[in-house]
């Protein structure tokens, strides 16, 4: 031990020995001064005894310091153990909360689907009932109008019977004019109807094309996002993948990952082995070590492509 280090007892021990030696020498000198005899040196056994006592005290202090150091080390180990146990409990609680959240989200989606199906069914039944009511009302109205028209015609025929010839000519002329007018009106109505139908068809086609374009864009965006995040996942796994030596770069492992929206990996299972058990295990370990993995924020893309994801890994993608 260096005598300059904090906690070192070397310097105090040497100082104490020197002080005791000086004290002994002074005592002996004083005693010799009182005696008319020649001075004698300090007996070696006295010096040895002083040194022995000081060494014993130093050893006792070293032993006490070692006991204190051991006590502090035990306390540090106890604190580290408590911290590890706390971290394990927090991790378990986090995983449990993630599973409960996923279950709640699934139940909510299933309930929403059931509610939507019930609402659609009720709306359809209501529309059909309204259509039947309108049809019945129209039929009743047409029957009443027909009966009134027939009654009016009979009354008119009875009144016009005396002047049949004149009425016939006038009626023929009126019917001809009415027929021509009706024909013109019918032609105009048919033309307007055809134009309206053509307009509605054109608008429907435009809407269909716009919806198709939006759907294609969304699908392309989802596919691009899926490819980007799969590359990010593969890179993150590769950064911690320590695969066994002497494996061929052509070996390939197919793994099915089950994740939650936070990217936490619930499980990683080899679905197609490379033929090398050590390589298969190293892939599973690397995936779990790299968790949480990067996943898209879009929940629809995650549910469709990332909650259960199958990927292939080769040793050439990893780093030592």
How would you describe what is shown here?
There is one protein chain. With 320 residues, this protein is mainly alpha-helical. It has five helices and three strands. The mean pLDDT is 85.
Task: Write a concise synopsis of the structure shown.
With 320 residues, the protein is mostly helical.
Instruction: Please state the average pLDDT score.
Output: 85
Helix fraction, binned, reads over 70%
Shape: rod-shaped
The count of β-strands is: 3
Biggest sheet: strands, sense, closure?
3 strands, antiparallel
Cross-sheet strand order for the largest sheet: 2-1-3
The secondary-structure element order is HHHEEHHE
Give start-end ranges of low-pLDDT stretches: none
CATH topology name of the domain at 222-317: Fusion Protein Consisting Of Minor Coat Protein, Glycine Rich Linker, Tola, And A His Tag, Chain: A, Domain 2
CATH architecture of the domain at 222-317: 2-Layer Sandwich
Strand content: 5-15%
Number of helices: 5
Class per helix and strand makeup: mainly alpha
Give Rg in angstroms. Answer: 52 Å
Distance between the termini: 42 Å
Can you tell me the CATH class of the domain at 222-317? Alpha Beta
List keywords for this structure.
mainly alpha, three-stranded antiparallel sheet, 5 helices
Topology:
Elements: H1 10-34, H2 44-160, H3 164-239, E1 253-259, E2 265-272, H4 277-290, H5 299-305, E3 308-313
Antiparallel strand pairs: 1-2, 1-3
Helix pairs in contact: 1-2, 3-4
């Amino acid at each position: 031990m260096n005598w300059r280090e904090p906690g070192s007892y070397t310097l105090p021990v040497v100082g104490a020995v020197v002080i005791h030696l000086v004290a002994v020498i002074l005592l002996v000198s004083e005693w010799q001064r009182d005696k008319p005899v020649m001075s004698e040196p300090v007996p070696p056994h006295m010096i040895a005894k002083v040194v022995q006592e000081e060494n014993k005290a130093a050893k006792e202090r070293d032993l006490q310091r070692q006991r204190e150091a051991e006590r502090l080390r035990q306390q540090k180990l106890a604190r580290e153990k408590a911290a590890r146990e706390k971290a394990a409990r927090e991790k378990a609680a986090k995983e449990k909360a993630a599973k409960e959240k996923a279950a709640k989200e699934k139940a909510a989606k299933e309930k929403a689907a059931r509610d939507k199906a019930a609402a659609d069914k009720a709306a359809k039944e209501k529309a059909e009932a309204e259509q039947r009511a309108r049809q019945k009302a129209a039929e009743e109205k047409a029957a009443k109008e027909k009966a009134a028209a027939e009654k009016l015609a009979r009354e008119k025929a009875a009144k016009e019977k005396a002047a049949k010839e004149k009425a016939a000519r006038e009626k023929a002329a009126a019917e001809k004019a009415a027929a021509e007018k009706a024909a013109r009106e019918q032609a105009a109505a048919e033309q307007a109807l055809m134009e309206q139908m053509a307009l509605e068809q054109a608008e429907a086609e435009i809407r269909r094309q716009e919806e198709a374009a939006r759907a294609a864009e969304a699908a392309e965006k989802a596919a691009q996002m899926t490819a980007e995040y799969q590359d990010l996942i593969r890179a993150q796994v590769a950064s911690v993948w320590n695969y066994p030596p002497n494996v061929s770069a052509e070996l390939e492992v197919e793994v099915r990952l089950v994740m939650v929206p936070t990217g936490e990996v619930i499980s990683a299972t080899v679905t197609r082995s490379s033929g090398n058990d050590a390589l298969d295990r190293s892939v599973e370990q690397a995936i779990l070590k790299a968790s949480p993995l990067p996943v898209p924020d879009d929940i629809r893309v995650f549910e469709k492509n990332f909650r259960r994801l199958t990927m292939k890994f080769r040793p050439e993608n990893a780093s030592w």
